[in-house]
Amino acid sequence: MSLKLSDADWGELWQEETKTIAQSDFSEQVCKFSGQIGKGSDRYVPLRNGLYLMMCDYELREDLTLDGYNGYTTYPSRLCVSFVIAGTVRTIHHGLTDYIFEVPGKNYIEFVPEGRETEDWSAGDRIIKIRVGITTEALRKMSHQSVATLPKELRLLVEEQELPPFYRLETTTPEMHMALQQILNCPYQGWTRQFYLESKALELLILWLTQASELDKTPKLCSLSHSDIDCLYRAKDLLTCNLRQPPSLLELARQVGLNDRKLKQGFRQVFGTTVFGYLHDRRMQQAQQLLMAGQMNVKETARLVGYASQSSFNAAFKKTFGVNPKALHRRR
Q1: Which of 48, 108, 165, 218 has its CA 20 to 30 A from that of 192?
Q2: Ranges for the HTH araC/xylS-type domain (predicted)?
Q3: Torsion sign over Cα 136, 141, 142, 144
């Protein structure tokens, strides 16, 4: 049975330990949490030019439903994009969204100044997120003459116009995924760490802004019903479960009850990528996880994720992550 908590209950159940780590001109702040419901940590990294990073890592000992209310803020002073690295949280902003699954390979941005939010967490599921933030003033200076190219929500933000509540869930691209892994595995300390993390935070923000702007320009290709969207999620699940021998487009469409045109157009519309683009991303993510865990060698990994040719796998992996799979495997 899931434990149901309010925001106040959540705060009372944690014991907090905060320490500051000096890094060049900036100081990182690390908050560690522990309690009867689990453990976790938040690492806040302030950077130059209005940027900051937040790295969150939580693991609960029992199923949890967190039910809370957002405080009212008429105008946000900063925006934040959250990238899901591990774990699954089911969330709903009541009156704004249906239930949404925040899962690895997804990122989201939200502005919900007032309203009720419910999150469901599962026992034993480790939740890791990287958040990249920038102040509104810094974004205004950065966009300068190019405000018109920003996603519509951010355009309203920098122009100081009324910003309606919104929640936006997008697919994390391989380029974003590479930058996220580089942040998690930053090899530097001191001032070099600060410059490195600043460059990666800015890279992530630019990649996200570029993707969001392009998606805004993409016309809606087809009208999707709730039933169609359910079919598309089943198609995604079928691909995830059959990385080694995925069905063809026509077979996949038949299995989920859509025609191939609606499958292709709807998949891009809902998940922000093509069917084969999603398949490729999932194969690469699973391969990276297997190699980093040292569970299999490169040949075995390539075969498990659906590559008959190891050379083709090596080329795809290096193009995605910037390193050869053998080099990643040797780090173990």
Answers
A1: 108
A2: 233-331
A3: positive
